[in-house]
Amino acid sequence: MTTVQSITPPFWLLAELTYACPLHCAFCSNPVDFAQLSNELSTQQWVGVFEQARALGSVQLGFSGGEPLMRKDLDELVGEGHRLGYYTNLITSGIGLNEQRIKTLKDQGLDHIQLSFQDSTREINDFLSSTKTFDLKRRVADLIKANEFPMVLNCVIHRLNIDHIGTIIDMAVEIGAEFLELANTQYYGWAYLNRTALIPTREQLRHADDVVRQRREQHGDRIKIIFVIPDYFEGRPKRCMNGWASTFLSISPDGTALPCQAAKMLPGFDFPNVRDTSIQDIWYRNPAMNRYRGDSWMPEPCRSCPEKSVDLGGCRCQAFLLTGDSSATDPACNKSPDHHRVVSVVKAASEVQSKPLIFRSPENSRLQTIARS
Amino acid sequence: MSDRAPMIGYPNIQKMYRLQWEDVQQSYVLLFPEGMVKLNQSAGEILKRCTGKLSVIEIIADLESTFAVSNLADDVEGFLAYATQSGWLHWPEQ
Ligand code: SF4
Ligand code: SF4
């Protein structure tokens, strides 16, 4: 049994302030319906969440969305976070960030801005192909540096852009990023449906790995590049979110508390809401949070596996998506009885190499051209 | 005692990092974008003195007098070297 004493505090609190976003990408992973918008937590409710989590020991506070800049009270929320002693992180596409706003955020005590490509299938490709997106990111990058924030650029990598990884790195250097996170696509939601079209092939990954190594040498100290090979290819799953409800607490715009944003899709879970439950009760006592803590929930082969403290049985969402059972061993592990499912996804990926994603919107035809080139 | 030259300068915490005391953890932590390093007591006491106002020699002297011990130079300099390598410290030009 997991006891309260053995539960570590939610060091990382992610506030998904809003699903509103100026981009309205065709394939947004967020539910962008307006019914949700009227259901957002108020300023006071957010501040209440920050106070409670801080008292439990949260130290990192992330503001994301949607586009968090769409919340008019973002500056105030950042200020409250800072006053409470959080290290405050803003995760933004940069749209809506102007000189005035960034100065206000700085004055309110914002510590860090992560400039992200929020929808990588479209935004990165725009970045690579249209000066408009590149100029936007550069303008925001300049603002970020002029205001003495560390300049962190994040992009999600998949089959359609992985062959351009060298160009992405060069462009990141050009806009002055000090850190570049090349993140793997997480295969849930829309990305899961399109996984055979999005998952890179082994050859692409090997090539990307070489390119990253070469660029690290070439650019030296100018940029720190973080690039991790997806676990589909490694025979061992990744430790997910540092363990289910071990470090990370995510609050949705409507107040739903989750151990990870993806967990929202898991059936049979009744995730608590900050409107009617205290953060303390949510974190330490809620059954959904306790469900995959420790190792007593583990099935075989994890239960008797010497590596169980390393990867904690992998990702619950990945397990659910590939096996239909969120309690199963993550099939990314080659000891899993379902590992063949991962093998066949990887194999299917290499077979559909030339098949581009079909986008509904006509303006995306350029993307397909890039994907093929 | 070692033969190497003593460290010289007035280190302070790199801009990106923030040192703070955490009641819940009963320790000093170093915070940086999306991350945290929990410091043991001596690391916390050393970094706390890296304000840019004290030289390495003064940091060592202050620690030795605060904790009533001597011969801390090697330990402190060793940790400062580690912290510098980790990117936590900034050494302003003299
Ligand atoms: S940028 Fe992100 S949040 Fe906004 S519409 Fe696109 S995918 Fe959705
Ligand atoms: S069997 Fe389970 S614990 Fe062992 S390596 Fe695989 S996923 Fe990890």
Task: Describe how the helices and strands are arranged.
The complex is a heterodimer of chains A (373) and B (94).
Chain A: E1 12-16, H1 34-37, H2 43-56, E2 60-64, H3 74-83, E3 87-92, H4 99-108, E4 112-116, H5 120-129, H6 131-146, E5 151-157, H7 159-162, H8 165-174, E6 179-184, H9 190-193, H10 195-198, H11 202-219, E7 224-227, E8 248-251, E9 257-258, H12 279-285, H13 287-290, H14 308-311, H15 316-323, H16 339-351, H17 365-372
Parallel strand pairs in A: 1-2, 1-8, 2-3, 3-4, 4-5, 5-6, 6-7
Antiparallel strand pairs in A: 8-9
Helix pairs in contact in A: 2-3, 3-4, 5-6, 8-11
Chain B: E1 12-13, E2 18-22, E3 27-32, E4 35-38, H1 41-48, H2 56-66, H3 73-85, E5 89-90
Antiparallel strand pairs in B: 1-5, 2-3, 3-4
List keywords for this structure.
heterodimer; A: 373 residues; alpha/beta; nine-stranded mixed sheet; globular; B: 94 residues; alpha+beta; Arc Repressor Mutant, subunit A; three-stranded antiparallel sheet; two-stranded antiparallel ribbon; 3 helices; 34% helix; 20% strand; binds iron/sulfur cluster
Question: Your description of this structure?
Answer:
The complex is a heterodimer of chains A (373) and B (94). By secondary structure, chain A is of the alpha/beta class. Helices cover 40% and strands 12% of the residues of chain A. Chain A has helices spanning 34-37, 43-56, 74-83, 99-108, 120-129, 131-146, 159-162, 165-174, 190-193, 195-198, 202-219, 279-285, 287-290, 308-311, 316-323, 339-351, 365-372; strands spanning 12-16, 60-64, 87-92, 112-116, 151-157, 179-184, 224-227, 248-251, 257-258. Chain A is globular and about 55 Å long. With 94 residues, chain B is an alpha+beta fold. Chain B has one domain (15-88): Coenzyme PQQ synthesis protein D (PqqD) (Arc Repressor Mutant, subunit A, Orthogonal Bundle). Helices cover 34% and strands 20% of the residues of chain B. In chain B, a hairpin with a 2-residue loop joins β3 and β4 (35-38). Chain B is globular and about 35 Å long. The termini of chain B are far apart. The interface between A and B is medium-sized, with 18 and 14 residues. The complex binds iron/sulfur cluster (2 copies). Residues 236-237, 301-302, 305, 307-308, 311, 313-314, 329-330, 333, 335 of chain A line the site of one iron/sulfur cluster.
